[in-house]
Amino acid sequence: MTTPGSPSKELAFATKADDRPTPRPGFVLDVDRSTPPILFHHGEGFRLEKLPAERSRVVYGPEAKPGLRHPDLAIEYALDNPIDQDPLATQLYAGMKLTIAFDDVSLPLPQMAGPDVRQRVIEAVLDRAAAAGVDDVHLIAALGLHRRMTESELRHAVGDRVYDAFAPEGNLYNHDAEDPEGMVELGTTRHDEPVSINRRVAESDLLVYVNINAVSMDGGWKSTATGLTGYSSLRHHHNPETLEATKSLNDRHNSALHTSIWRQGEVIKEHGPNIFHIETTINTNAFGYDGPLSMLQKREWEWNSRDRMKFMGMQAGLKAMTTRAKRKAFMDWRSPYEMTSVQAGDVDKVHEITLEKVLEQHITPLEGQSDIVTFGLPYTSPYSVHSIMNPVVVMCWGLGYMFNFYRGKPVVREGGVIIMTHPTPNEFHPVHHPSYIDFFEQVLPDTTDPAEMAVKYEQKFAEDEWYKHLYRTSYAYHGVHPFYAWYWGAHALKHVGAVIIVGGDPVAVRRLGFKPASTMMDALEMASDVVGPQPTLTHLHNPPVVMADVT
User: Fold this and answer.
1) Taking the CB of residue 95, how many other CB atoms lie within 10 A of it?
2) Out of 199-203, 251-255, 331-335, which region has the weakest mean confidence (pLDDT)?
3) How far, in Å, are 27, 373, 394, 403, 546 from residue 58 at the CA level?
4) Which end of the chain, C or N, has fewer beta carbons within 10 A?
């Protein structure tokens, strides 16, 4: 039943379906001799690569779904008609302690053009809180062990009005997992995993969590149980054993990581605050339907003369720019994503609907595995927003994220080869990634084995007081974070026979334990030494984001 005063469901969830042609589903192209060169991201640039005919295929994701025509009305409806909970307004009252937590700067990628979905939702929640006379309200960026968000990043996420109303009073801030007075342990799971959480959150009468789901890996209990916790809890699932056993980070119900997180969620549900969980999904319109980068989202054989001219002009411009200038230009890009759904209420039931919506946008059926999988890595990742894609982040983005864009079975067969394109500079952001520098210089020369480095080095980095100080007071990732980035690729490291990076700095690539190649042709010859002659190849095209449903 619709809450009195709430918009109708039909109006709230009307889409812009009539504004554009019906989006096409995902598609698998079998490459033949007439197939044009295929687009690969290459850091702050792009490559066009001719793939071997008759034994290559390209997996394209579904085109961007139409967004909601009235996103603010959809949010109003979700708050007033939640799933298995009372309307939000009825849960708010004068004298209560209300905390609103929200996803940090690591998503979506690229950043969303304003107003950000988080801003829209938070403003609607605060309007209801004000109407109910709630005075004690805190807003917390749910960082986990990520770096703190800057003022400009917080302003982008929540909007100037919210920032100016709460930040000066100290009521809008970043989660601090190393604050000894700011964390509390709620209990342990049935597997003896301790569950710690932000003290303000634990002591609140209600936690409202505001999420953006860009991929199926995120959301659900992963929001609260990773974003608002610390090392003592995270280490029980962010470890080599769990991540090696996680057969796809994007397949929640077959993920050892998510299984552990959901156990921790049970403890939060029993011993933590009441939670009103809000999840949103967005489409894959990262580079626009028109404009200077729109051709990146098209299938290459559909590029017209204007698209080709735009691409050639962009390539010429990038060639003339310094790396620093290119990074800034790309980091300043704001994607015209559109919200495709919003649901609120019970964490588990909300998330199941969210997963359906996300998978509708990303899934492309794919028959069988191949000897080689290829993908291009872009200029940004969850751990390099407004930063530098250092070699460790390159490894994480390729083997942790891109490799895991599958359901069922990996795109590449066991013992196969990953070929990815990226400059892989031997360069680190000194403010964001101080522990990454030491990890690269101290740990990787000794071992690239996740299990071995966990035993020999993890605790030292996790407990280092200087790293903790930088995490708490500067804008540095936690000391243990480069280990987590490396563990993210643990399944891929065990699964494949070799990793080749095309166009990467040879010294940096070899330090990662991978093989450098100057050209795609060289990489394919090197891969043949591992998997045999005339190997089959699958390219995961990006953009748009695609998740292969491998049978």
Assistant:
1) 9
2) 251-255
3) 8, 10, 22, 15, 11
4) N
Distance of CA 551 to the CA centre of its chain: 25
Q: Which residues contact 483 (CB under 8 A, 6 or more apart)?
A: 439, 453, 454, 457, 458, 461, 462
Assess contact for 413 and 368: CB atoms under 8 A.
Answer: no
Three-state SS string over 450-476 comes to HHHHHHHHHHHHHHCHHHHHHHHHCCC
Compute the half-sphere exposure of residue 154: CA atoms within 13 Å on the CB side of its CA. Answer: 24
CB 67 within 8 A of CB 16: yes
Instruction: Kindly report, residue by residue over 374-419, the tens digit of the pLDDT.
Output: 999 999 999 999 999 999 999 999 999 999 999 999 999 999 999 9
Distance, CA of 145 to CA of 485 (rounded, Å): 11
Q: DSSP character for 239? A: S
Cα–Cα distances in angstroms (integers) from residue 470 to residues 9, 108, 145, 442, in the given order: 47, 25, 12, 19
Residue with tokens 């031997």: 426
- The residue ranking higher by pLDDT, 49 or 18, is 49
What b/e sequence results for 463-482 when a residue is b if at least 16 CB atoms lie within 10 Å of its CB, and e otherwise? ebeebbebbeeebbbbbbbb
Over 412-433, what HEC string results?
Answer: EEEEEEEEEECCCCCCCCCCCC
Give the tokens for residue 82. 């939640």
Give Cα separations from 259 to 115, 203, 424, 450, 512 (angstroms): 34, 26, 33, 21, 29
Strand pairing of 194-198 and 183-188?
A: antiparallel
| 366 neighbors 551 (Cβ within 8 angstroms) | yes
Residue 393 carries which side chain, given as an amino acid letter? V
Residue 285 in contact with residue 291, Cβ under 8 Å? Answer: no
H/E element holding 370? strand 370-378
Interval 239-262 mean pLDDT: 95
SS (H, E, C) 170-182: CCEEECCCCCCCC
Which are the contacts of 34, defined by CB distance < 8 A and separation ≥ 6? none
Q: Give residue 197's Cα distance to chain centre.
A: 22
- Residues 77-86 have a mean pLDDT of 98
The CA distances from residue 43 to 367, 376, 390, 456, 484, in Å, are 30, 8, 11, 32, 22
Q: What is the DSSP string of 313-326?
A: HHHHHHHHS-HHHH
Residue 97 tokens, joined = 């302690």
Domains of the chain: 24-63+362-550 (3.90.226.30), 71-282 (3.40.50.11440)
Q: Is the dihedral of CA 518, 520, 521, 524 positive or negative?
A: positive
Using CA of residue 498, residue 500, residue 506, residue 509, what is the dihedral sign?
negative
- The answer, yes or no, to whether the previous bond of 544 is cis (omega within 30 of 0) is yes
**Dihedral angle at the C-alpha atoms of 459, 460, 462, 465, nearest 10 degrees?**
140
